[in-house]
Amino acid sequence: MRSLSRDLSLLAAVKLAVSGAVLASGFRAVSDDDFARVVLAQRWAEAPVLDPTGTSWLPLPFWFYGSAMTLFGRTVRVAQATAVVLGVLAVLLLYAAGRMWWPKRRDALWGAVLCAVLPWSAYLGVATVPELPTAALTVFGVATLASTDSRHRMLGGLALAAACLCRYEPWPATALFGLMCAVDAWRDQRPAWLVAAAIAAVGPSGWLMHNAMTHGDALHFAARVSAYKRALGGTGSFFTYLSSLCREEPELVALAIFVAGHRSRYGTKSPASRRVALVLGGMLVALSLASLPGSAPTHHSGRAVLAVWLAMAIYVAPSLRAWLSSPRGRVVGLALAALVALGAVVLRPWYARLDRFTPRVDEVAIGDAARTAHGPILLEVRDYRFYAIEAGSADPRRFVRDRSIDPRQEIAPNAFDTPAELRRRIEESGARAVVGTVSTTAPVLGEPVAEAGPWGLFILTE
Length: 462
Fold this sequence. Notes:
Strand content: under 5%
Order of helices and strands: HHHHHHHHHHHHHHHHHEHEHEHEE
Strand order of the largest sheet: 2-1-3-5-4
Mean pLDDT: 89
Shape: globular
Low-confidence stretches: none
């Protein structure tokens, strides 16, 4: 028990240190989706509902973030702190997955440390999107296939059910998990494993049922995502996720392939590893097929394969620890670390280039300044950064967006580009304040009472 407490404390400290370093570097958000999710959680905290979005986004993350905001306030900082806590819990869950996977405690510890420091894990450990907790739940659920304890399998099913209510990527893995549990139950005469499969199925089946009852189509969410992708003009590719898997974490992928070859040569194959590889490999194939009609994320495709990277980190941990335990292995390890560090500085910006991140510092700041205004606030919408302004205010319901920029609909002109149209929208909305770019708004409304980058807050007088 003392060893367990020591391991958990160490892992929490490592993940907190990594998260602190990422935030100190200036990173705040992966994309505007981060702030959209914060806005939806703020709305849920004010008026909880079963389905916070009414669209294709799954509900569990909003329930969690919204509950935290109900307790501690509806600010971006509370959302960011919640993300950091979830990042720590994710690493601890990955340690539990390693304990299912490997007999030695140290191997699980090494694997969880690797999971904590992977670049995407580091970023997503502080971002307000649910990919890291979802991936950790997925890896843990799949890792329980290595256990013959029915209680472990049921916990795995529960983890997968939760993951399926956060993101769609775990759905294929959950189906394969259920299939393996059914095969095991038939072969070993263990009906309890069917219960684990049934528990895992609650997440997807519940969401399908909700869509059927609410929208009249069980697959309404898939049609919505595809329509949005088509409106943006994007085209799908079967190799999108395979490319991201290798391009964005090449060192980890190469090490996993080398370890697999080494273990195969020396007859040290792991049944647990084969099962995890089969399930997560099936998930990767399903994601690749889903990307063809456009039913896939529109940016940062590497986020969707995070579970595969985390599983690879746990897989290579025993071999890495064994190699680095010998004197010659330490020398080789230091040399490899130097090469990886050199590659990270010189080569990674070229071969592992990521989509641009969006901290939206100015937008959050002007949103915070808008908290001093009274009454409705007319908000200029140029792109999706308006979500960051609403999130920064901690009260998004006060804003009246000047237009919708949903690509599936005809997009109206920006009212702020025409003085007469801006005055008409102010009168129509009953706004008592305006947030817009200073260059377009100041010539009409005078000097702003607050500025942040290109944005200004304008208080309207009678």
